[in-house]
Design brief:
The chain is mostly beta strands. The protein contains one helix and five strands. A hairpin with a 4-residue loop joins strand 1 and strand 2. It is globular.
């Protein structure tokens, strides 16, 4: 799985995307989704950062960094973030 953001939408894709629970839920008509992306800036000192997005999703054909295939396109409605903009 991987993601990309074009400034308006998040695209979620991957080789097994059509078999994921999120994809199957959207396919069944439940388009309300949550997405969390996080990582560690550094471990000494411990500095996590991330973003959580609530939004709506649809299945679209898209050519992205993972190639041309069916992706989940997420339209963000609300987001929260932590640790962004901190210097190391």
């Amino acid at each position: 799985m991987g993601y990309e953001f074009d400034g308006e939408y998040f695209y979620i894709g991957g080789r097994a995307n059509p078999k994921t629970r999120k994809y199957l839920n959207v396919l069944a008509g439940n388009n309300r989704v949550a997405l969390a992306i996080d990582d560690l800036v550094t471990t000494d000192p411990w500095r996590p950062r991330g973003i959580k997005i609530h939004g709506t999703a649809e299945i679209v054909e898209h050519t992205g960094r993972l190639g041309k295939s069916m992706y989940l396109r997420i339209t963000p409605v609300k987001s929260w973030s932590w640790g962004l903009g901190q210097s190391v």
